[in-house]
Amino acid sequence: MGNFSIAIHGGAGTITPASMTPALEDKYKSALHFALERGTKILAAGGKALDAVQQTVEALEDTPLFNAGKGSVFTKHGMHEMDAAIMCGKTLQAGAVAGVYSIRNPIGLARAILEYSDHVFMSGYGAEEFARKQNLAFAPEEYFFDPLRYKQWSEVRDSDVFMLDHTAGDHKFGTVGAVAMDQEGNLAAATSTGGMTNKNYNRIGDTPVIGAGTYANNHSCAISCTGHGEFFLRAVVAYDVSCLMEYKGLTLQEACEKVVMDKLVRFGGEGGLIAVDGSGNIAMPFNSEGMYRACKVSNKPAIVAIYKEETKLVNSDQL
Protein backbone atom coordinates (compact mmCIF):
# COMPACT_ATOMS: atom_id res chain seq x y z
CA MET A 1 0.00 0.00 0.00
CA GLY A 2 1.30 3.44 -0.92
CA ASN A 3 1.26 6.44 1.37
CA PHE A 4 -1.82 8.63 1.76
CA SER A 5 -2.99 11.41 4.09
CA ILE A 6 -6.32 12.96 4.98
CA ALA A 7 -7.41 15.72 7.35
CA ILE A 8 -10.89 17.06 8.13
CA HIS A 9 -12.48 19.88 10.10
CA GLY A 10 -15.93 20.71 11.39
CA GLY A 11 -15.51 24.37 12.25
CA ALA A 12 -13.52 26.51 14.69
CA GLY A 13 -14.15 29.13 17.35
CA THR A 14 -14.68 29.41 21.09
CA ILE A 15 -14.78 25.69 21.76
CA THR A 16 -13.56 24.76 25.24
CA PRO A 17 -14.08 21.82 27.60
CA ALA A 18 -16.20 24.09 29.80
CA SER A 19 -18.63 24.69 26.91
CA MET A 20 -19.05 20.98 26.16
CA THR A 21 -20.73 18.12 28.02
CA PRO A 22 -19.03 14.70 27.87
CA ALA A 23 -21.98 13.32 25.91
CA LEU A 24 -21.85 16.12 23.33
CA GLU A 25 -18.08 15.80 23.00
CA ASP A 26 -18.51 12.10 22.28
CA LYS A 27 -21.07 12.91 19.58
CA TYR A 28 -18.73 15.36 17.86
CA LYS A 29 -15.76 13.04 18.01
CA SER A 30 -17.80 10.09 16.77
CA ALA A 31 -19.06 12.14 13.81
CA LEU A 32 -15.52 13.26 12.97
CA HIS A 33 -14.23 9.70 13.24
CA PHE A 34 -17.01 8.38 11.00
CA ALA A 35 -16.28 10.95 8.30
CA LEU A 36 -12.55 10.36 8.55
CA GLU A 37 -13.06 6.62 8.16
CA ARG A 38 -15.10 7.15 5.00
CA GLY A 39 -12.28 9.06 3.35
CA THR A 40 -9.60 6.74 4.71
CA LYS A 41 -11.23 3.66 3.19
CA ILE A 42 -11.23 5.29 -0.25
CA LEU A 43 -7.59 6.29 -0.02
CA ALA A 44 -6.44 2.96 1.46
CA ALA A 45 -8.07 1.15 -1.46
CA GLY A 46 -6.14 3.29 -3.94
CA GLY A 47 -8.98 5.71 -4.63
CA LYS A 48 -8.66 9.32 -5.74
CA ALA A 49 -8.14 12.21 -3.37
CA LEU A 50 -11.01 14.04 -5.09
CA ASP A 51 -13.43 11.22 -4.29
CA ALA A 52 -12.15 10.98 -0.74
CA VAL A 53 -12.67 14.65 0.10
CA GLN A 54 -16.11 14.74 -1.51
CA GLN A 55 -17.43 11.70 0.32
CA THR A 56 -15.85 12.79 3.60
CA VAL A 57 -17.53 16.19 3.40
CA GLU A 58 -20.84 14.56 2.46
CA ALA A 59 -20.65 12.55 5.68
CA LEU A 60 -20.22 15.82 7.61
CA GLU A 61 -23.05 17.46 5.66
CA ASP A 62 -25.35 14.59 6.64
CA THR A 63 -25.18 15.26 10.40
CA PRO A 64 -26.93 18.20 12.11
CA LEU A 65 -23.93 18.65 14.42
CA PHE A 66 -22.09 20.82 11.90
CA ASN A 67 -23.16 23.95 10.04
CA ALA A 68 -23.31 22.48 6.53
CA GLY A 69 -25.91 20.50 4.61
CA LYS A 70 -28.47 19.09 7.07
CA GLY A 71 -27.10 21.17 9.94
CA SER A 72 -27.13 24.52 8.11
CA VAL A 73 -28.19 27.58 10.11
CA PHE A 74 -31.18 29.77 9.30
CA THR A 75 -30.90 32.96 7.23
CA LYS A 76 -32.70 36.26 7.88
CA HIS A 77 -35.66 34.89 5.92
CA GLY A 78 -35.81 31.57 7.74
CA MET A 79 -34.22 29.64 4.90
CA HIS A 80 -30.96 27.76 4.44
CA GLU A 81 -28.43 29.18 1.96
CA MET A 82 -25.52 26.81 1.43
CA ASP A 83 -22.10 27.24 -0.18
CA ALA A 84 -19.48 24.66 -1.17
CA ALA A 85 -16.34 24.18 -3.26
CA ILE A 86 -14.05 21.37 -4.37
CA MET A 87 -10.71 21.45 -6.21
CA CYS A 88 -8.36 18.95 -7.84
CA GLY A 89 -4.66 19.59 -7.27
CA LYS A 90 -3.55 17.61 -10.31
CA THR A 91 -5.55 19.49 -12.95
CA LEU A 92 -6.48 22.68 -11.03
CA GLN A 93 -10.08 22.02 -12.00
CA ALA A 94 -12.58 23.34 -9.50
CA GLY A 95 -16.29 23.51 -8.87
CA ALA A 96 -18.09 25.91 -6.55
CA VAL A 97 -21.65 26.79 -5.62
CA ALA A 98 -23.19 29.57 -3.53
CA GLY A 99 -26.62 30.39 -2.16
CA VAL A 100 -28.46 27.14 -2.88
CA TYR A 101 -31.51 26.29 -0.79
CA SER A 102 -32.55 22.69 -1.13
CA ILE A 103 -29.58 20.65 -2.29
CA ARG A 104 -29.09 17.70 0.06
CA ASN A 105 -25.31 17.65 -0.42
CA PRO A 106 -23.94 20.94 -1.81
CA ILE A 107 -20.45 19.46 -2.15
CA GLY A 108 -21.89 16.94 -4.63
CA LEU A 109 -23.19 19.84 -6.72
CA ALA A 110 -19.75 21.48 -6.61
CA ARG A 111 -18.23 18.21 -7.86
CA ALA A 112 -20.80 18.03 -10.67
CA ILE A 113 -19.90 21.58 -11.72
CA LEU A 114 -16.24 20.54 -11.84
CA GLU A 115 -16.96 17.38 -13.82
CA TYR A 116 -19.84 18.25 -16.12
CA SER A 117 -19.83 21.97 -16.83
CA ASP A 118 -17.56 24.47 -18.53
CA HIS A 119 -17.79 26.74 -15.49
CA VAL A 120 -16.24 26.94 -12.04
CA PHE A 121 -18.76 28.91 -9.97
CA MET A 122 -22.58 28.81 -10.02
CA SER A 123 -25.13 30.31 -7.64
CA GLY A 124 -28.78 30.38 -6.66
CA TYR A 125 -31.54 29.17 -8.95
CA GLY A 126 -29.19 28.56 -11.86
CA ALA A 127 -27.10 26.22 -9.77
CA GLU A 128 -30.23 24.39 -8.64
CA GLU A 129 -31.39 24.05 -12.25
CA PHE A 130 -28.03 22.52 -13.12
CA ALA A 131 -28.37 20.16 -10.14
CA ARG A 132 -31.71 18.92 -11.47
CA LYS A 133 -30.18 18.21 -14.86
CA GLN A 134 -27.49 16.18 -13.09
CA ASN A 135 -30.15 14.27 -11.12
CA LEU A 136 -28.69 15.30 -7.79
CA ALA A 137 -30.68 14.75 -4.60
CA PHE A 138 -32.88 17.53 -3.30
CA ALA A 139 -34.44 17.65 0.17
CA PRO A 140 -37.55 19.43 1.56
CA GLU A 141 -37.22 22.29 4.04
CA GLU A 142 -38.09 20.00 6.95
CA TYR A 143 -34.96 17.94 6.25
CA PHE A 144 -32.85 20.98 7.17
CA PHE A 145 -34.94 21.89 10.24
CA ASP A 146 -33.18 21.54 13.57
CA PRO A 147 -34.89 22.72 16.80
CA LEU A 148 -31.71 24.16 18.30
CA ARG A 149 -30.79 26.03 15.11
CA TYR A 150 -34.37 27.39 14.94
CA LYS A 151 -34.26 28.56 18.57
CA GLN A 152 -30.96 30.36 17.98
CA TRP A 153 -32.34 32.09 14.90
CA SER A 154 -35.60 33.01 16.67
CA GLU A 155 -33.65 35.01 19.23
CA VAL A 156 -32.18 37.36 16.61
CA ARG A 157 -34.45 37.18 13.56
CA ASP A 158 -36.17 40.50 14.29
CA SER A 159 -32.86 42.33 14.55
CA ASP A 160 -29.98 43.14 12.24
CA VAL A 161 -27.67 40.94 14.28
CA PHE A 162 -26.00 38.01 12.55
CA MET A 163 -24.12 35.24 14.29
CA LEU A 164 -21.17 33.32 12.98
CA ASP A 165 -22.78 30.00 13.74
CA HIS A 166 -24.60 29.07 16.92
CA THR A 167 -25.03 31.70 19.63
CA ALA A 168 -22.98 34.75 20.48
CA GLY A 169 -21.75 32.93 23.57
CA ASP A 170 -20.62 29.92 21.57
CA HIS A 171 -18.92 32.08 18.90
CA LYS A 172 -18.27 29.28 16.40
CA PHE A 173 -17.42 29.44 12.73
CA GLY A 174 -19.48 26.73 11.11
CA THR A 175 -17.85 25.07 8.14
CA VAL A 176 -16.80 21.54 7.27
CA GLY A 177 -13.93 20.51 5.05
CA ALA A 178 -11.47 17.86 3.99
CA VAL A 179 -8.05 17.71 2.31
CA ALA A 180 -6.27 14.61 1.07
CA MET A 181 -3.26 13.19 -0.72
CA ASP A 182 -3.91 9.87 -2.48
CA GLN A 183 -1.44 7.06 -3.19
CA GLU A 184 -0.53 8.62 -6.54
CA GLY A 185 0.49 11.83 -4.77
CA ASN A 186 -2.44 13.89 -6.02
CA LEU A 187 -4.06 16.47 -3.76
CA ALA A 188 -7.66 17.65 -3.36
CA ALA A 189 -9.66 19.96 -1.10
CA ALA A 190 -13.37 20.36 -0.35
CA THR A 191 -15.30 22.76 1.90
CA SER A 192 -19.01 23.24 2.68
CA THR A 193 -21.00 25.63 4.90
CA GLY A 194 -24.41 26.93 5.85
CA GLY A 195 -22.98 30.40 6.47
CA MET A 196 -24.06 32.73 9.29
CA THR A 197 -27.22 32.63 11.41
CA ASN A 198 -29.59 35.45 10.37
CA LYS A 199 -27.37 36.44 7.42
CA ASN A 200 -29.01 38.83 4.98
CA TYR A 201 -28.63 40.08 1.40
CA ASN A 202 -27.51 36.65 0.10
CA ARG A 203 -24.18 37.06 1.87
CA ILE A 204 -21.40 34.75 0.64
CA GLY A 205 -18.27 33.93 2.64
CA ASP A 206 -14.90 32.46 1.76
CA THR A 207 -15.90 28.80 1.53
CA PRO A 208 -16.90 28.67 -2.17
CA VAL A 209 -14.29 31.19 -3.34
CA ILE A 210 -11.35 29.35 -4.90
CA GLY A 211 -8.16 30.61 -3.30
CA ALA A 212 -9.89 32.11 -0.26
CA GLY A 213 -11.49 29.21 1.61
CA THR A 214 -10.59 26.30 -0.66
CA TYR A 215 -7.55 25.54 -2.82
CA ALA A 216 -5.51 22.57 -4.10
CA ASN A 217 -2.36 22.42 -6.21
CA ASN A 218 -0.06 19.41 -6.51
CA HIS A 219 2.94 21.78 -6.60
CA SER A 220 2.20 23.05 -3.11
CA CYS A 221 -0.73 21.95 -0.96
CA ALA A 222 -4.45 21.44 -0.46
CA ILE A 223 -6.27 23.78 1.94
CA SER A 224 -9.73 24.00 3.52
CA CYS A 225 -10.47 26.96 5.80
CA THR A 226 -12.89 27.73 8.60
CA GLY A 227 -13.30 31.12 10.21
CA HIS A 228 -14.84 34.56 9.84
CA GLY A 229 -15.24 34.51 6.06
CA GLU A 230 -14.82 38.22 5.47
CA PHE A 231 -11.29 38.13 6.85
CA PHE A 232 -10.39 34.96 4.96
CA LEU A 233 -11.65 36.54 1.74
CA ARG A 234 -9.60 39.68 2.26
CA ALA A 235 -6.49 37.68 3.11
CA VAL A 236 -6.99 35.15 0.27
CA VAL A 237 -5.89 32.64 2.90
CA ALA A 238 -5.84 29.33 1.02
CA TYR A 239 -3.89 30.65 -1.97
CA ASP A 240 -1.58 32.66 0.26
CA VAL A 241 -0.41 29.47 1.98
CA SER A 242 0.19 27.87 -1.42
CA CYS A 243 2.13 30.90 -2.66
CA LEU A 244 4.41 30.96 0.37
CA MET A 245 5.31 27.35 -0.35
CA GLU A 246 5.61 27.57 -4.13
CA TYR A 247 7.40 30.91 -4.45
CA LYS A 248 9.20 31.37 -1.13
CA GLY A 249 10.06 27.77 -0.33
CA LEU A 250 8.36 27.63 3.06
CA THR A 251 7.34 24.25 4.44
CA LEU A 252 3.64 23.47 4.85
CA GLN A 253 3.75 24.10 8.59
CA GLU A 254 5.73 27.33 8.20
CA ALA A 255 3.36 28.71 5.56
CA CYS A 256 0.25 27.80 7.54
CA GLU A 257 1.62 29.31 10.75
CA LYS A 258 2.60 32.51 8.94
CA VAL A 259 -0.89 33.04 7.53
CA VAL A 260 -3.08 31.79 10.39
CA MET A 261 -1.06 32.80 13.44
CA ASP A 262 0.47 36.03 12.09
CA LYS A 263 -1.21 37.57 9.06
CA LEU A 264 -4.80 36.85 10.11
CA VAL A 265 -4.25 37.78 13.73
CA ARG A 266 -2.78 41.16 12.81
CA PHE A 267 -6.05 42.36 11.30
CA GLY A 268 -8.50 40.52 13.53
CA GLY A 269 -9.21 37.34 11.61
CA GLU A 270 -10.16 34.34 13.70
CA GLY A 271 -10.33 30.67 12.67
CA GLY A 272 -8.11 28.01 11.22
CA LEU A 273 -7.48 25.61 8.38
CA ILE A 274 -6.45 22.08 7.50
CA ALA A 275 -3.71 21.41 4.96
CA VAL A 276 -1.75 18.62 3.32
CA ASP A 277 1.26 18.79 0.99
CA GLY A 278 2.57 16.51 -1.76
CA SER A 279 4.66 14.54 0.73
CA GLY A 280 1.62 13.79 2.86
CA ASN A 281 2.53 16.19 5.67
CA ILE A 282 -0.47 17.57 7.54
CA ALA A 283 -0.97 20.93 9.28
CA MET A 284 -4.06 22.01 11.23
CA PRO A 285 -3.34 25.45 12.77
CA PHE A 286 -6.01 27.67 14.32
CA ASN A 287 -5.92 30.91 16.32
CA SER A 288 -9.26 30.36 18.07
CA GLU A 289 -9.95 28.42 21.27
CA GLY A 290 -10.69 25.21 19.41
CA MET A 291 -11.33 23.51 16.08
CA TYR A 292 -13.16 20.27 15.39
CA ARG A 293 -10.52 18.29 13.51
CA ALA A 294 -9.19 14.84 12.68
CA CYS A 295 -6.48 13.31 10.51
CA LYS A 296 -4.98 10.04 9.37
CA VAL A 297 -1.66 9.27 7.69
CA SER A 298 -1.33 5.89 5.96
CA ASN A 299 -1.05 3.10 8.54
CA LYS A 300 -0.57 5.40 11.54
CA PRO A 301 -3.28 5.87 14.19
CA ALA A 302 -6.09 8.30 13.47
CA ILE A 303 -6.17 11.47 15.56
CA VAL A 304 -9.40 13.25 16.56
CA ALA A 305 -9.22 16.51 18.52
CA ILE A 306 -11.30 19.54 19.47
CA TYR A 307 -9.53 21.77 21.98
CA LYS A 308 -6.44 23.97 21.84
CA GLU A 309 -4.69 21.93 24.51
CA GLU A 310 -4.79 18.91 22.20
CA THR A 311 -2.52 20.65 19.67
CA LYS A 312 0.60 18.88 20.91
CA LEU A 313 -1.05 15.54 20.21
CA VAL A 314 -1.78 16.52 16.64
CA ASN A 315 1.74 17.86 16.11
CA SER A 316 3.39 14.79 17.62
CA ASP A 317 5.51 12.15 15.92
CA GLN A 318 2.36 10.12 15.34
CA LEU A 319 2.05 12.08 12.11
Summarize the SSE layout with pairings.
Layout (H helix, E strand, L loop, with lengths): L4 E9 L8 H23 L4 H13 L20 E7 L5 E7 L5 H11 L4 E3 H10 L13 H8 L17 E2 L2 E6 L5 E7 L20 E3 L4 E7 L1 H7 L1 H12 L3 H15 L4 E7 L4 E2 L6 E8 L5 E5 L3 H4 L5
Parallel strand pairs: 3-4
Antiparallel strand pairs: 1-5, 1-6, 1-12, 2-3, 2-7, 6-7, 8-9, 9-10, 10-11, 12-13
Overall pLDDT, averaged? 87
Question: How many DSSP-defined strands?
Answer: 13
Output the CATH class name: Alpha Beta
Largest sheet: 9 strands, mixed
How many DSSP helices? 9
Euclidean distance between termini CA atoms: 17 Å
How much of the polypeptide forms β-strand, as a percent range?
15-25%
Q: Output the radius of gyration.
A: 18 Å
What CATH calls the topology is: Glutamine Phosphoribosylpyrophosphate, subunit 1, domain 1
Tell me the CATH architecture.
4-Layer Sandwich
Count of distinct structural domains:
1
- Going by helix content, strand content and strand pairing, the class is alpha+beta
Q: Note the overall shape.
A: globular
* Oligomeric state, counting identical vs distinct chains: single chain
Could you state the CATH homologous superfamily? (Glycosyl)asparaginase
Report the helical percentage: 25-40%
Which stretches are low in confidence, meaning pLDDT under 50 for 5 or more residues running? 165-171
The H-and-E topology, N to C, reads as EHHEEHEHHEEEEEHHHEEEEH
